[in-house]
Write a structure and sequence with these properties.
The complex is a heterodimer of chains A (about 475) and B (about 450). In chain A, about 65% of the residues lie in helices and about 0% in strands. Chain A is built from 23 helices and 2 strands. Chain A has a two-stranded antiparallel ribbon. The radius of gyration of chain A is 22 Å and the shape is globular. In chain B, helix 10 links the parallel strand 12 (about 230-235) and strand 13 (about 255-260). Chain B has 15 helices and 22 strands. Chain B is globular and about 65 Å long. Classes of the chains: A mainly alpha (about 475), B alpha/beta (about 450). The interface of A and B includes residues 62, 64, 477, 478 and 479 of A.
Chain lengths: ~475, ~450
Amino acid sequence: MNRRMVIYILGKMMGVEALLLLLPAGISLIYKEWDGSFFLIPASICLILFALFGRKAPADKVIYGREGMLIVAGAWILWSLFGALPFTMSGTIPSYINAFFETVSGFTTTGSTILVDIESLPKCMAFWRSFTHWIGGMGVLVFVMVLANLDKKSSMHLLRAEVPGPEKDKLVPKMRQTARILYGIYLGLTALEVIFLLIGGMNVFDAVLHSFSTAGTGGFSNYNASIAHFNSSYIEWTITIFMTLFGINFNMYFLLLLRNFKPVWKNEELRAYLGIIVAAVAIISFNIYTIYGQDSLRTAAFQVTSVMTTTGFISADYTTWPMLSQCILLFLMVVGACASSTGGGIKVTRFLVLLKSIRQYCRHLIHPKQVSLIQVSKRTMSSQVLYGVHAYFMSYVAIFIASVILVSVDNMDFASTLGAVLTCMNNVGPGLGVVGPSGNFSSLSVLSKIVLSFDMLAGRLEIFPFLLFFNLNAWRKKF
Amino acid sequence: MKIVIIGDGKVGHRLTTQLSEEDCDLTLIDRNDIKLNDALNKFDIICITGDGADAEIQKQAKVGEADLVIACASTDELNMLSCLIAKKLGAKGTIARVRNPVYFRQINLLKDDLHLNMVVNPELTAAQEIEKVIMIPETTKVETFMKGRVDLVEFPLKEDCKITGLTLSKIYETLKTKILVCAVVRNDEVFIPDGNFVLKGGDKLHITAPRKDLEKFFTAIGQREQKIKNVLICGGGHVTFYLTRALIGSGRKVKIIERDKDRSVLLAEAFPEAVVIRGDGTDHDLLIEEGIKDADALVALTSLDEENIILSLFAKSLNVPKIIAKVNEESRSKMVQNLGIDSAISAKYATADLIISYVRARQNSLTSANVETLYQLVGGQIEAMEFIIQEESEYTGVKLKDLKIKPNHLVACIGRKHHIIIPDGNDHIEPGDSVIVVTKGNGMNDFSDLFVHKSILSA
């Protein structure tokens, strides 16, 4: 256990957060708001921490998988703790627990909010909320790798802990290059969405904010009614398409840039992802036809992609829809987006692997000695990966059950309790009932907010780095 | 004494070397006649080519007249069967090597039916030796006498130690605890020191002391070391199995690195408390990842001497406090100690020592004092023996300073009922005592060999 290196990298991370906090302060200058000054204090605290811990590298720079996981979990927790300070200091969100919940929800690209009146927020605060989505979407450490040259040996351990999905690939041999390509694609797509939204008649501020929220598959909007506020079918379709795009494995875009179309076309996860979306949209639009008439396809498409990619924008209150549609949406929350995208949930690949395991076991019962392998996109999953997927699923269920029991202390109705936990664990945003599209999380108790913050972080970091962070053995000496 | 040895393997070879020098009539049986020819050229013995479990071969080797048959061929089954046949043919005593942990566990059930006088398990013996060194980390080798109440330990004296440059008599005066320096190795030369001997830094001391006083002694001379808690073992063979069992039993943390899949699974099953890593123990990155820097001791127990030596040197470069390597070849084990590795342990030597001390004890069973245990130290240059004094004799009841003891012989310790006496000139020997004698060179078969001629009393 190389504690010094963990502290050193965390120290560096604080320096980066200090820079990020200066950005909304700059925004406040443009809009001549006084609240921007509240970003300077946390920024300077972060800068002091950086000066204390992040300047001098320890002699022993070698870290392994476990340090990588601890660094990633530590970085996310620290960034959320300090990122919440501006909200509390400026008085926009007086309670620190609420501010923390909101920031965690931002960084983890969940989009659940405790704010009742979002529109009253100063512009710099609204910007900070959506900006956390954008940073959190691709991963805070991947972001740091783009900016700073971290130790070359350690970078793979960090990437492995932060990028979602059962298998982690590098695009190019150099880690830093990979991070830059990922952020390049990310930035490009975001910029494209800003342009499309501007064409649709949004003002610059709204367009940037909503693009940030879409890109990170977060779901914070600066309007109480979310996307429904614009009441524009062009904007809804644009966002629907971009949500779908951000839910796809980013490696696919890299392959497209290299004009390597065949593996993209043959990619099983991508096909399954699009297939599920099409099927769900078809079922739901028939199911809600009686309510929305000819708007039902658009509404269904928007809500399905919003939930499946775990963005959580709202164009209609789906809690008033028939039970079939609600249940499908709930299931889509759990499935989530593709691996290595900015979306949350269990991920489509994992579901494919889980379903194929069922088939494999049935085959095994029929032909006990058959050599049967599990393949996704013609690639055989090693037993280590399978084991990882099964363990992941089991821990997911275990955390889900524990969280539901803890949140049920609040004595909300069944749908609200279940919905709150599901939406947080899968980083979606709105749940059902009290925490549904028309509600928010402000009425929950402190305990529930802490539990749900935990769930959001666990969901975003894919459970294990986060579990390890609370495991004393991981912090102990090597032996 | 007529002895038949079945199997010319590592242990067999070592036994032949040792026993042929001690005036025993040896017959060696093995299937490999090239090996036997070699032995025939080197030693003054009879060799017979054939299967040791074949009664005809055994008859040819005159097993019926033998005092002792030692079966140390490669397989346990063959050894046990050979001993059974030998007993049927009239051999007086049999010793079998049994190394399979399963057989060894139930050996008490079999021992009587197979008429075995002694069963030796080389790996267990080696593991016990390693365990002792880990228990007392200041030392590099530990031999126990009187059922574990007295230790004879070897340790290197540091340059800046309090007792360097002092004579032994001065040291005995200043130290409160009673210990006895019975041998000193300096530049490959062995001394049995007297009171005027001056210690130098770098000397290897052999001292006897009751176990409970050892700690006090090392504290007094300022060479006390941290207790060993975390042990990293490379290689997962039988020695590892026994060693892990012992170390876990005494509450230590054990991490094992083993290459083979099935073997590592077996170890993980047997010791859920231990951390078993499947990987190559010679891989430096793996060792560092698994925390060799935080280990208190590294035990290199892979099947290759070379690998163990390299591993130990690597651990040495990382300042692991205690390094123990299994080294089978004698020439290599000398080299290892010159390289600064604390302890080199060989299953072969440990087993041969056990058998030889049994042989000695049998030889002496008719005289007035029995050899209870025997150890060979410093590559056979020193012997330490424990005698049990059976009856009144010329030397009993006389003060030690009045006895005429041969040069290079030393009475190191006397055990009398519940007391351990570290003797000086005013102590004496009584019937019923256990007496530890340390000698330079070998050839002491009887307790009376301790004294010059037959005139036991001086002047």
